[in-house]
C-alpha cells in the first residue's frame, strides 16, 4: 500500500463514562497524585465505590510512566473499576504515526504476528488472535493477545491481556495505533468485541500535506 498525501489533522473516539483522559503533553507541572485524587473523587460521585486501597498510588505511578512518552501525537485514557477495592481497569494508548512508503495494513499484520513469535525474555504469549476489518473510509487490523510475565525461577507468572488495533484511513499518510491493556482479566466480558466497539467510534479529519 502506498500512503496518500493526506494527513490526520485530528481524531476522536468515544469511551464509557468510567474512562478518564490522562493529561500528558503540556501538563508536566501537574502533580500526578493530585490528578489521581481528583479522578477517584469523581469515581465516588458517579458510582458506589469500594475501598480506595492503592488506586491513587497506582494511577499516579501510571501517569508518571507515561509522561516519558508524552508528545502531541500520543493520547492515553484509563478506566477505574469501583467494585470491592478500586483498581485500574483498562489503559488505552493511542499514537498517531506517519507511514513510510511501504507501510500499511499488511505490514502491520505481519509485524504483529512476528512480535508474538519473538517475545522478550521473561514474557510468554499464551494466545494470540488476528483479524482484519473494512470500514466505510478505513481499514482496521486487530490483535488479541494474552501475555504471561515470568520472574526468574517462577513456573507461573502475572497474566495481562491486550488488544492492538491499527486504523488506516483511506488515502492518508498517517495511521492510528491503539493498544488496550488490562491486568485484571475481569475488566471485560469479551475484550475483543468491547475494544473493537470503541475503535469503531473513531472519527478523523484529514487534510492535505503542505
Write the layout of secondary structure elements.
Elements (H helix, E strand, L loop, with lengths): L5 E7 L6 E3 L10 H15 L8 H13 L6 E8 L5 E12 L6 H13 L5 E12 L3 E12 L8 E12 L4 E9 L8 H9 L3 E6 L2
Antiparallel strand pairs: 1-9, 2-3, 3-4, 4-8, 5-6, 6-7, 7-8
Helix content: 10-25%
Secondary-structure-based class equals alpha+beta
| Net shape | globular
Strand content: 35-45%
| SSE pattern | EEHHEEHEEEEHE
Annotation, overall tally of beta strands: 9
> What spatial order of strands do you see in the largest sheet?
2-3-4-8-7-6-5
Describe this structure in words.
With 210 residues, the protein is an alpha+beta fold. Helices cover 24% and strands 39% of the residues. It has four helices and nine strands, in the order ββααββαββββαβ. The strands form two sheets. It has a seven-stranded antiparallel beta sheet, sandwiched between helices. β7 and β8 form a beta hairpin. α1 (32-46) crosses α2. It is globular and about 50 Å long. The model has no long low-confidence stretch (mean pLDDT 91).
Key attributes of the depicted protein:
single chain, 210 residues, alpha+beta, seven-stranded antiparallel beta sheet, two-stranded antiparallel sheet, 4 helices, 39% strand
